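S2.1 Query sequence (YhgE/Pip family protein)
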Amino acid sequence: MSTALSSLNLQVPSLIDGVNQLATGTQILNGKSDKLLNGMTQLSSGSNKLATQLNSGANKVNSNIGTPNNAQMFASPTSLQHTSTSTVPNYGHALAPFAMATGLFIGVLIFTLEFPANRRHKTPRDAVKVLNEEFKRAVSVSLAMVVILNMIMILSGLKVDHIFDLFWVCLIYTLAQMAIMQFLTLIMGRLGTIIGLLLFVASIGGAGGMFPMQVTNSFFNAIHPFLPMSYAINGLRQAITGGLGNSYASINALVLLGVAVLFYLLFLLAASTLIKRDVLVTDTKEITQEI
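Output structure tokens follow.
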């Protein structure tokens, strides 16, 4: 009995501590009771308001006459409008700008391979005359290629939104490529055609004609702005299917025109240097005899 009382006496401090904690908790609960009561009041008020609004909405819905228009409004509360900025009938129309730019570039490569601009002559002449002869040859050949290619494409079923832009972009692009190739063959001969071929290979991947530039690697994205074919494809897309802006084709054509002017100026400078060294041909009659 004495042992039990001793054990009980030892637990008295713990019991007192628990009673004190209970009293403290009761005081905290009593202090928060006002906030709890306020929250319950707000919850009750909100529940009543929700029930009232739902009942009011249900009454309004029930009061509506069940017309087909009302049924359509409830079935499709929103409407979707679709506007097309351009129409691409099929994959052929989407690929046509790349195919046309590629065909014209190949034509330029073949022409400059057969008629390089660095032919030799014993009596040198004025560089302006050399440029004039090469430019007239470039214009005539470019115009013939553009007319033949565009007529074949149109007769094959290509639908063109802006026919003038189609011929304008093609002609300026061909002249730009012709200027580049004539300059390269002037300073390097047939080796310049090899450089042009490398430019053609780079254009296949970097001009954005087959695949969007967003899915092309960083190298082709880096050279994309420097390739004339990039601007030709952009301009031809606007000319064929539209949707890119009325001035978009002209802007790209002006860039190509700048490329042509730049390389013909370089051609003039190189021709002047080569004439001074007596290593340039300008007499077309003697060229024919040498060939």
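Residues 283-291 have pLDDT under 50 and may be disordered. The chain has two domains: 2-75, 92-290.
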